[in-house]
């Protein structure tokens, strides 16, 4: 039995396609379960902001590895990898079909393959860049990275302090690989047979969908959700969720711009992956897309 993996940028409609896939699979006598491969959907209390499947969607398709950590907890890809492997292996052993759903590249990789996680940096390297960060701020740190390794800076948001520090650490250690070298983010080697479906959308349609999604989040009370998480001491990891800081500042337009930029990077990354069947979903309903995925060899 193949794992079905749905990749794609935020706002492209992965959850709707997963639900449609589940309905078609059940008609074939299967028992599907969705496994989230998202770095931020793990947090309770941030379900609206991070795009966790709604209660109605979860009634149609069980979703695992969503909303199980308090917002003040830290979480790593290594911890996620262990949980995802256990969920997927258990589902396959029970004869159930896993549908891995994600847009976070490293977490999709962690769910489907084995990560060779790098050890922590030697003492002093992190402190150096943390000091520069505190003195000059993340945007200046991003500029340093862009000057030294522009290809690495392109994939990191200028405000993502943790990833900027880590990238500069690895660069100092000679362990940051250019895109033409072996990539930590992807490999053709999967732990189980997997059909990779990469959902794409024409850029203008995707940007319009993102803007509509942000407005719908605001109407659903996402500002209050973020304020509650902030008051409860949300961890630095949880605060990486797109829009967390912008909504605290009341700047929904900035949230839209950041989300559009992130979606653009997700599309660029996904289109470079080996073994991914890309499907343009522009103007199509989720059922038609689900049929195409299953007809391609699932």
Give a verbal description of the structure.
The chain folds into 2 domains: 3-117 and 185-295, 3-Layer(aba) Sandwich (Rossmann fold), CATH 3.40.50; 125-172, no CATH class. Helices cover 50% and strands 10% of the residues. It has helices at residues 14-27, 47-50, 55-60, 77-93, 105-112, 125-136, 138-148, 150-153, 161-172, 203-219, 222-231, 244-248, 252-271, 286-295; strands at residues 3-7, 32-36, 63-64, 97-102, 194-200, 276-280. It has a 6-stranded parallel β-sheet with strand order 3-2-4-1-5-6, with helices on both faces. Helix 10 (203-219) packs across helix 13. The model is unreliable at 180-184 (pLDDT under 50).
Fill in the CATH topology of the largest domain.
Answer: Rossmann fold
Cα separation of the termini? 8 Å
Question: Superfamily at the CATH H level of the largest domain?
Answer: P-loop containing nucleotide triphosphate hydrolases
Coarse morphology = globular
SSE string: EHEHHEHEHHHHHEHHHHEH
Using the coordinates above, name the CATH class of the largest domain.
Alpha Beta
Number of strands: 6
Strand content: 5-15%
Q: What Rg do the Cα atoms give?
A: 19 Å
| CATH arch. level architecture of the largest domain | 3-Layer(aba) Sandwich
- Counting structural domains, the number is 2
Helical content, roughly? 40-55%
Unreliable stretches: 180-184
Structural class: alpha/beta
Mean pLDDT, nearest integer? 89
Strand order within the widest sheet? Answer: 3-2-4-1-5-6
Sheet with the most strands, sense and barrel status: 6 strands, parallel
Figure out the total of helices: 14
């Amino acid at each position: 039995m193949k794992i079905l993996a749905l990749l794609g940028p935020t706002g492209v409609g992965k959850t709707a396609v997963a639900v449609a896939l589940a309905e078609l699979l059940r008609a074939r006598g299967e028992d599907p379960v969705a496994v989230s491969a998202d770095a931020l959907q793990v947090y309770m209390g941030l379900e609206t902001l991070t795009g966790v499947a709604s209660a109605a969607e979860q009634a149609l398709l069980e979703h695992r590895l969503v909303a199980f950590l308090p917002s003040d907890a830290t979480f790593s890809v290594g911890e996620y990898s262990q949980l995802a492997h256990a969920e997927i292996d258990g589902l396959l052993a029970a004869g159930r079909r896993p549908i891995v759903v994600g847009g976070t590249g490293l977490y999709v990789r962690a769910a489907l393959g084995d990560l060779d996680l790098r050890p922590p940096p030697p003492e002093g390297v992190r402190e150096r860049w943390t000091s520069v960060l505190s003195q000059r701020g993340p945007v200046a740190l991003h500029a340093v990275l862009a000057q030294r390794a522009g290809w690495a800076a392109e994939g990191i948001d200028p405000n993502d302090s943790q990833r900027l520090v880590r990238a500069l650490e690895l660069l100092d250690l000679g362990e940051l690989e250019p895109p033409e070298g072996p990539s930590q983010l992807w490999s053709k080697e999967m732990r189980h047979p997997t059909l990779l479906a990469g959902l794409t959308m024409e850029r203008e349609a995707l940007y319009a969908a993102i803007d509509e999604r942000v407005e719908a989040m605001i109407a659903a009370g996402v500002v209050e959700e973020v304020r509650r998480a902030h008051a409860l001491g949300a961890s630095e990891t949880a605060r990486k969720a797109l829009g967390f800081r912008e909504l605290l500042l009341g700047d929904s337009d900035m949230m839209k711009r950041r989300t559009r930029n992130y979606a653009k990077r997700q599309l660029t990354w996904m289109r470079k992956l080996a073994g991914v069947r890309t499907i343009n979903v522009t103007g199509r309903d989720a059922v038609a897309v689900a049929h195409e995925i299953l007809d391609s060899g699932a």
